[in-house]
Specification:
By secondary structure, this protein is mainly alpha-helical. It has one domain: Arc Repressor Mutant, subunit A (Orthogonal Bundle). The protein has seven helices and two strands, in the order αααββαααα. It has a two-stranded antiparallel sheet.
Amino acid sequence: MFSKATEYALRATIFIAQKSTPEKKLGIEEIAKAIDSPQSFTAKILQSLTRNNVISAVRGPNGGFYIADKAKKLPARAVLQAMGEDDVLEKCVLGLKKCSETQPCPMHEQYKSIKQQLIKLFVTKTIAQLADDIKDGVIFISNKKK
């Protein structure tokens, strides 16, 4: 549904929200390993997230990435917006440009309610809530086996 970059951005944001504080910042290597992403690719993703104020970064020997309390209250959709994929939730499931109520694709009617549920999920679920969901050890953000 989303590009690899956006998938990694969602994972990275959740991991950073779960593991960092303004006093305890995370390095790119640690984040990339945790989300099972190439380090150079992770760096570009973190740059986009920082530029769009989803996460924060500090340069230097005690630097790294963290997420401020204010940013933790952002909806998950903020990550999609930072990655330029916010429109994915609104698009036709078949990728048609003119799919609508008056000119529907073959899946329009069935997908309409799913699309509404997805939008609601990304608008109502905060970054903090996603991070908190992981704490019980039942929900994961990596493909690696424990």
